[in-house]
Amino acid sequence: MVKQRNDFDVPTYPEWESEKNVMLSAFFWGYVLTQIPAGQLAEYFGPKRFLSAAILTCSLFSVLIPVLGGQFGYGGVILCRIVQGLTQGFIYPSIHHLISAWVPLANRANIASFVYAGGPLGTVMVMPVAGYFSSSRLGWPMAFYALGAVGLAWTVIWLVFGLDSPHHHKTITKEELRYIQDGAINDKKPEKLPTPWREMATSLPCWAILICHFGSLWGFWTMLTEIPTYMDKILHFDIKSNSTLSALPYLVYWILNLIMSPIADYLIVNKITSVGVSRKIFNSIGVFVPALALVGLVFVGAEERAWTVFLLVVAVGFNTAILCGFHVNHIDVAPRHAGTLMGITNALGNCAAILAPLAVDLFKSIGGYQESDKALWNIVFITAAVLFASTGLFYNLFASGKVQPWNDPRNSEDASPQEKQPINEKK
């Protein structure tokens, strides 16, 4: 994908071809380890400091990737990716804790999905930039330097303006504070509660989130990590076209998020559906539509570029609906433990992100395939489609939109007035 340049001593992508999927999964070796501790630490000490340290460290190691890659080869890159994974493990649990503290139920799907859609939006911006640098005189290392600089700048901004909770805001009005607290965790001051580990482990709604998290991330990371290779080896796009077209599905992902998330909140606020029904509707869109699109790719020939790109855009783009589904459901069922619960499901769910790229290598080894063989990609896409659909079905059967009793055993009136509205389901 990237040609060797004489003005850089850093080994380029083709020299690491056999180690590519190991490097892609290395990030998650560290990522899954810190998820659960991150949720606990964010709840006990506040998420601001952990978000700051995570982005700062990750940005520094982004700058170091070309340096250590040139000095130690792909092992240096793997080391950097593991460290980045360890630090980024603090991000989602910390953000979930922030959302549970700051966002009332009436705005929960809209704001939470908007926040989490920032990741795919970053993909949209980074892929063309990386493609430009990789094919220019500046060389591919400049992409890592630029991204590291952006992360460092964000850290400064967050340290200046970020706050752990509304209670820490010096200029917030009493009316604003009351509105947020009544709709978020229904408490004047957040209190530290023991984590109900046993109750979480035996809760079907929690298992529904976890199972769906795993299946969705298998599909998402299969598409994110393998689409550029598919476009290169099967569709034969050059690097500039590849980077732009690889980003297109994530642009659609972000645009559809802006459309779907307000609808999800509208259905709940106007009592058209319950919280649980709304989560299941949008989660179904987010997993079943991508599953169908991936199956469609199996029947589209390599020469049919337009149809292939269209189906990839559909598969990735409609996956955005999960941000209004299971992805925000942690806050519905356990607002006081949302950070920890997100840490648990994100840790175990991201085992799929470790396994998905390695599964491609396994399929190649067992079947004797090359990356230029369409049959290999048919297996990859069918596997992702089956996991999307089966885990989505499990979620629809067992998920809930109700605050669970173990969320705060001290107070049976734990749920906010909006959350206490009857829901049209057993779960």
Fold blueprint:
Layout: H1 20-45, H2 48-72, H3 74-88, H4 91-102, H5 108-116, H6 118-134, H7 141-161, H8 174-183, H9 197-201, H10 204-233, H11 239-269, H12 275-298, H13 305-317, H14 326-333, H15 338-349, H16 351-367, H17 374-398
Helix pairs in contact: 1-3, 1-4, 1-15, 1-16, 2-3, 2-7, 4-15, 5-11, 6-7, 6-11, 10-11, 10-14, 10-15, 10-16, 10-17, 11-12, 11-13, 12-13, 12-14, 12-17, 14-15
What are the main properties of this structure?
single chain; 427 residues; mainly alpha; Growth Hormone, Chain: A; 17 helices; 70% helix; disordered N terminus; disordered C terminus; membrane; Major facilitator superfamily (MFS) profile domain-containing protein; transmembrane
Kindly describe this structure.
- It is found in: Membrane.
- Its main location: membrane.
- InterPro entries: MFS, MFS_dom, MFS_Na/Anion_cotransporter, MFS_trans_sf.
- The protein is globular.
- The protein has a single domain, classed as MFS general substrate transporter like domains (Growth Hormone, Chain: A, Up-down Bundle).
- It is built from 17 helices and no strands.
- By secondary structure, it is mainly α.
